[in-house]
Amino acid sequence: MKLVVQRVKRAEVKVGNKVVGKIGKGLFILVGIGKADTAKEANALAAKLEKMRVMSDPTSPRLRGASGKDKMNFSVRDVGAEVLVVSQFTLYANTADGNRPSFIEAADPKKAKEIYEYFIDELKNLGLKVETGSFGEYMNIKTELDGPVTIVLES
In Å, what is the CA distance from 7 to each residue of 31, 52, 54, 95? Predict the structure, then answer.
């Protein structure tokens, strides 16, 4: 599994004109599922996300070179933030040969959807507030990045 995790001030996903997922302060997470991925990888990454300290501590001293107070001392759970999870098979794009990406390393849609939904359930079981995109749909996504903080996680 591959995740691109971005700290946001707000994020929203629309399918057509309908908002299907929306959060305030929290994490916007793109999820790619590979052919070899199982529930084991989903469990491990959900547990990592729940504990990952990427949220700002407004009381921390100014960081060297930083323009403001932004020491990452807290997890999403610590600050009661939300997560917005969106499926993204293109995280498995391979551009080694030619100019058109190949997606042969991405899981087939049926398997990917099962693991994606399992991952979301695991986040919810850990007590996180979770919103989602719409699996397999064309989505319009709006984010307001915070920091910016972007972290790539792989199982």
Answer: 15, 12, 8, 27
Q: Which range marks the domain in which residue 54 is found?
A: 2-154
Domain count, the chain: 1
Active site residue 88: yes
Cα 71 from Cα 66, distance rounded (Å): 10
Is the pTM value of this prediction over 0.90? Answer: yes
Q: Would you call 90 a catalytic residue per the annotation?
A: yes
- Which is catalytic among the residues 88, 119, 135, 143? 88
| Options 28, 74, 89, 119, the catalytic residue | 89
Residue-wise pLDDT for 67-83, tens only, equals 555 689 999 999 999 99
CATH code for the domain in which residue 16 is found: 3.50.80.10
